[in-house]
Specification:
The chain has 497 residues and is of the alpha/beta class. It is 45% helix and 17% strand.
């Protein structure tokens, strides 16, 4: 069966998987979704003994049906190789009574590597399949992790360029250094004077600018996206939830068919949406716990059915979740609106013009798979400290948000199901926040001294990604106001401004 994709804002037009990956965003501003979520065609019993790479093929072939077996396996081989520091790619670690799925063993020590290691290969394969001759310009906004992971994935890839925008004061020092020291003639990094939502909205506006698209085409360019709005980012994320369940089964931690709860620290909603897709494919998942930090727009949405971004933007110790416009939520809204593109478009227009929308009661009843929760800054610090003192395990700030939400839910509901936590970043990325949560004395140390101290505290080796930035030369110094992003793109591409 050839699985086609359509826009969340237009029910009429369908495209193939490779076309959806190439375009990134639909022409009408909608997000591409499969016309239906495919079911796993392999049993959990068979999946138990499979490697990560083998599981990736089983899952992704169901979604990317216009890729040949040879093409897809080549993409998977190129992605999940020695750039990961563990052979199993996504290790499962039991921490107390919870299972942490460690998604941070890739080149940039954050979960974005899981998808952004394969996206460049999917994209270049898709370009060949569709006889694209233009140079593909990857345009992306980042709240910290997507930027470096995308830069690392696309650096030096023939036929591509990549431009990353990030909020100047909205990422950690390590995240900033990882981006601004990135080598590669086809890479560009720009700090914007604003927050992540402004960067993300600016990028979406550039994608929707048809006049700019025409100018780009004349110069031999076309945009594509590495953000989680690209279905080529979302599909690989489904893999690790399928893999995690199969491995828990293989290790005797679950009985066949036993349901688990999954907690995901969530900003842009893509990572938890992937878990939702895994459930629809047949993975026995009970509740999906959507864990927010103090920017709790998603918590409020699941509680009330009203999405309202008109609130103070809070800078927290979990910056990758400092987001008020969760772009991937649109895919879920479309699903609970019974794939009514017109209804979805109306809600998204309300979000754009008024900053808020409210779903119907009928739509709200279809959110029963999800539970919203959030952690304050103090609760995040307490989670890091308590888990460390009880188990010796060191979590990053984002994972700590999820750990707190998971524990609070278990206590409140008395839910005894096994709990899987998506552990989304290495603690080394947020060493100051992590160590000062354990003991305030560490705040006196400099950035790199903190790294060395964390190695002692965590008893884990400093990742190569951190070693690389210790003395790396800064190569990207561009900055601009949020409203000048279009001019900056033209300048980088040597087009007339």
């Amino acid at each position: 069966m050839n699985l086609l994709y359509k826009s969340t804002r237009n029910k009429e037009h369908t495209v193939t998987a490779s076309e959806a990956i190439l375009k990134g965003l639909a022409d009408d501003g909608g997000l591409f979704v499969p016309v239906q979520i495919p079911k796993l065609d392999v049993s959990m019993e068979a999946l138990k003994g499979m490697s990560y790479q083998e599981t990736a093929y089983v899952v992704m072939k169901q979604f990317l049906t216009d890729f040949t077996e040879e093409e897809l396996k080549h993409c998977i081989r190129c992605a999940y190789d020695s750039k990961f520091d563990t052979e199993v790619i996504a290790p499962l670690v039991k921490v107390g009574d919870k299972y942490h799925l460690e998604l941070f063993h890739g080149a940039t020590i954050a979960f974005k590597d899981m998808a952004l290691s394969i996206l460049p290969h999917l994209l270049t394969t898709a370009a060949r399949k569709n006889q694209v001759t233009n140079e593909i310009v990857i345009l992306t906004a980042t709240s910290g992790d997507t930027g470096k992971a995308a830069l690392a994935g696309f650096a030096g890839v023939p036929g591509t360029r990549i431009i990353v925008f990030y909020p100047k004061d909205g990422v950690s020092q390590v995240q900033r250094l990882q981006m601004v020291t990135q080598k590669g003639e086809n890479t560009a990094v720009v700090a914007i004077h604003g927050n992540f939502d402004q960067a993300q909205s600016g990028v979406k506006a550039l994608f929707e600018d048809q006049e700019l698209a025409g100018e780009l085409s004349k110069e031999g360019y076309q945009f594509s996206s590495a953000n989680s709005i690209n279905i080529g980012r979302l599909v690989p994320q489904v893999v690790y939830y399928v893999y995690a369940y199969a491995k828990l089964l293989e290790h005797g931690e679950l009985e066949a068919g036993e349901e688990i709860n999954v907690t995901v620290p969530t900003g842009n909603f893509g990572n938890i949406l992937a878990a939702y897709y895994a459930k629809q494919m047949g993975v026995p998942i009970a509740k999906l716990l959507c864990a927010s930090n103090e920017n709790k727009v998603l918590f409020d949405f699941f509680r009330t059915g009203c999405y309202d971004k008109n609130r103070e933007f809070v800078l927290t110790s979990s910056p990758s979740m400092d987001i008020l416009i969760s772009s991937n939520l649109e895919r879920l809204i479309y699903a609970i609106a019974d794939q009514n593109a017109e209804k979805n478009r109306e809600l998204m227009e309300a979000l754009r013009t008024k900053g808020t929308y409210e779903i119907t009661q009928e739509m709200k009843t279809k959110l029963s798979d999800f539970v919203g929760g959030y952690a304050t800054e103090e609760e995040t610090r307490a989670a890091i400290r308590d888990v460390y003192h009880k188990t010796g395990y060191v979590m990053d700030t984002h994972t700590a948000v999820a750990a707190h939400v998971c524990s609070a839910y278990q206590e409140r509901i008395k839910d005894t199901k096994k709990a899987l936590i998506a552990s989304t970043a290495s603690p080394y990325k947020f060493a100051r926040s992590v160590l000062t949560a354990i003991d305030a004395k560490y705040d006196a140390l400099g950035e790199m001294a903190l790294i060395d101290e964390l190695e002692k505290v965590s008893q884990t080796a400093v990742p190569q990604a951190i070693e690389e930035i210790r003395n790396a030369q800064i190569v990207h110094t561009r900055e601009c106001d949020a409203e000048k992003m279009k001019d900056m793109v033209k300048e980088i591409l040597h087009m007339a401004v």
